[in-house]
User: Fold this.
Amino acid sequence: MRIGLFATCLGDTLFPEAVKSTAVLLARLGHDVVFPPEQTCCGQMHVNTGYQREPVPLVRNFAEQFGDPSIEAVVMPSGSCAGSVRHQHEIVAERYGDAGLRTGVAAVKAKTYELSEFLVDVLGVTDVGAYFPHRVTYHPTCHSLRMLRVGEKPLRLLRAVEGIRLVELPEAEACCGFGGTFAVKNAATSSAMLRDKMDHIAGTGAEVCTAGDSSCLMHIGGGLSRIRSGTRTLHLAQILGSTRTSPHILAEAAR
Assistant:
């Protein structure tokens, strides 16, 4: 299958290893991964902040970059960005776009997936040949859980990883408190939600907290490092991309 890889803004600027791991994983599974070089932001942060007309150029560019019929699927290591493409782009195109944009958005929407749902629902695999001999807990991010409804798919993938010791996260479905601009506009509430999440993570004794969104991991990881918890954060793609022959080496966590 020919797969178009969308890096996302955070992946491009702050977490490139998650994007690289996604590409390596998909290629390892036998697929042709292409990276449209003119891709930009999906426009999610504009829409979430109430600016629905402003991201029209971004939505149009996304549809153009990934609308090539030879690209059979568009995959990204982000539930929030996949949710934006599948839900928000249609709203923007209907309200402020033209017929061409609406057609392009509909075509790309139909083939866009978050990484875990693509692996399980489209490729039909849960064991991707990964090896990660560490104690891990999983945080289900809000957009993947509530907008995309990926459910147990990330956990099914993690359970199949060789060597992993997967531990349940108490109150896993509670938001970590990030929510993009929510963390800025409601800092006190965001910090309180983060403290609850960190307490639950600490209680698992996990070496690693993983998730499908770099944004949530950035928020959680920042908090864990400030309290020197010893728990690292790592994107799901990096765990799935780790193998016996090319293992992911964990960096030393702050204590």
